[in-house]
Amino acid sequence: MAKPIIISVDDEPQVLNAINRDLLSNFGRDYRILKAGSGKDALEILQDLKKRNMSVALLIADQRMPEMEGTEYLEKSIAIFPNAKKVLLTAYADTNAAIMSINTIELDYYLMKPWDPPEEKLFPVLEDLLSDWMANTIPTYDGIRVAGTLWSASSHSVKDFLARNRIPYQWQDIEIDSEARKRVEQAQGESKLLPVIFFPDGDTLINPNNKSLAEKVGLKTEASAPFYDLIIIGGGPAGLGAAVYGASEGLKTLLIEKEATGGQAGTSSRIENYLGFPKGISGSDLAKRATDQSIRLGCEILTAREVDRIMVDQPYKTVCLKDGEELTCKALVIATGVTLKELHAPGVKELTGSGVYYGAALTEAQNYKDKHVFVIGGANSAGQGAMYFARYSSKITMLVRGSSLTKSMSQYLIDQIGNQENIEVITNTEVVKVEGENKLEKITYANKETGEEITADLAAMYIFIGAAAHTKLVDGIVTRNQAGFIPTGQDLIHDGKMPKGWNLQRIPSLLETDVPGIFAAGDVRQGAVRRVASAVGYGAIAVSLVHQYLKTV
Ligand SMILES: Cc1cc2nc3c(=O)[nH]c(=O)nc-3n(C[C@H](O)[C@H](O)[C@H](O)COP(=O)(O)OP(=O)(O)OC[C@H]3O[C@@H](n4cnc5c(N)ncnc54)[C@H](O)[C@@H]3O)c2cc1C
Q1: In the chain, is it the N or the C terminus that has fewer CB atoms within a 10 Å radius of its CB?
Q2: pLDDT tens for each residue of 24-68
Q3: With contact defined as beta carbons under 8 Å apart, do 243 and 252 qualify?
Q4: Is 176 helix (H, G, I), strand (E, B) or coil?
């Protein structure tokens, strides 16, 4: 595979040579380093690279160039390589222009000249950007290939699993690619199951379950011990927050995740309100960073393993996995979050995975390039989804039950949607039905006030209509409220009385459930503020409460 390219442009030869030298010394092994003396020359080079189907990972430009300023050049370059990371070299006086370009051209970073020492000021920033680029780029490479049809729900679920676990793969649609169809037919033999996954070592898997797929791609699925100080169920922001603090503070910690670490946050195309990321961060990147950090600090993470139920024999808690395995611990953190509610309208169930998707389904967005798609829902997640799909699809129609977006969506997203020409928002609306033979083709929706029904053609529909707690696993063990969320701490005390069955002198601590030593953190907890930052924060607090609890047993 050809090395991806980093190209820098500056009209001052001294600066250009300096950046080129630094780039070569640190990135030359993995990237091809190119330079140009003006924006015009660089654009010509980019056009040529595009023709030759090369990948450009990073564009670096000096802001002050007489013929074409850095920002103008970067803006033009987006049209050629939209996914390349963009860095502007600035003098102190250019700071305002640079900050403005964060919005206008989605600048990834501005770097003040000079950048000495490069080990501190240049390399770490560029390494972060390049690893983000890598994580979000599907290279033309000889790695994992997933072959199936766009309309097969199992093909969608395999792609989704790989993407959410940040495993690169190449998608081959056998309705379009005849070579791939022949390979699939050979591999399938008698079975007609899809997808077929081809691995670089020559192995194939046909419509595997998540655990077999996880094992094959190198994710850990088996626990190394039967007993832990702390087991965390759920690998979203709350679970990962608990994992980082649990493992770094010396607890033997295991995290069990049924699908992919990152949870709901991992499906977000861009999280703009998480502290420390002024330009926002993709959920996938945040999930990768947090997962790597937890593992580095000593947490064991099992992926594609689902906890079915728990048993308690104080002070021990046993976690029973779906396939029958049991693991025991002294303290348990439930961080199982929420799942998107199902939309109950005729046709939806039958077409799920074949044009109808729950949540952001980022993997599918490119398949609906230049098509009309619908987003159902009016909260932040729906807004983020619509903004992401708007990059690919020709038109996005958002169907919102409420009378406006203001009650359910943050103002920054309302503004972004208002400025996005290819998004239309229709309020006071409900989905009546969807139709299609094998794949989604038509939607009928109605105005809630007038009852007027409209039928429209569409290629895909993404549903974001609220959330239900993932708490079946604690059924009969831990008290849940009527909506299925887990009350903790003071919420368990009614009329000054301790919860039923609570035999201790102390009251349950802030995140403790009505079973001593079982804690709940994140969206699954009654009254939780459903945000990434609060989930991470409560995950961390849960560990401090676990320490207090462990001193008592
Ligand atoms: C599309 C989208 C965009 C969002 N954007 C933002 C944003 O911009 N800013 C913001 O602050 N918040 C945002 N949110 C909300 C934020 O992501 C959530 O509040 C946060 O992820 C909650 O974290 P959590 O760990 O409590 O739960 P979750 O993220 O729901 O994670 C729970 C995890 O537990 C796993 N699990 C469930 N049951 C089991 C089981 N039985 N066994 C093993 N594992 C299990 C699930 O697979 C999941 O990975 C967004 C949410 C969505 C859906």
Answers
A1: N
A2: 999 999 999 999 999 999 999 999 888 666 889 999 999 999 999
A3: no
A4: coil
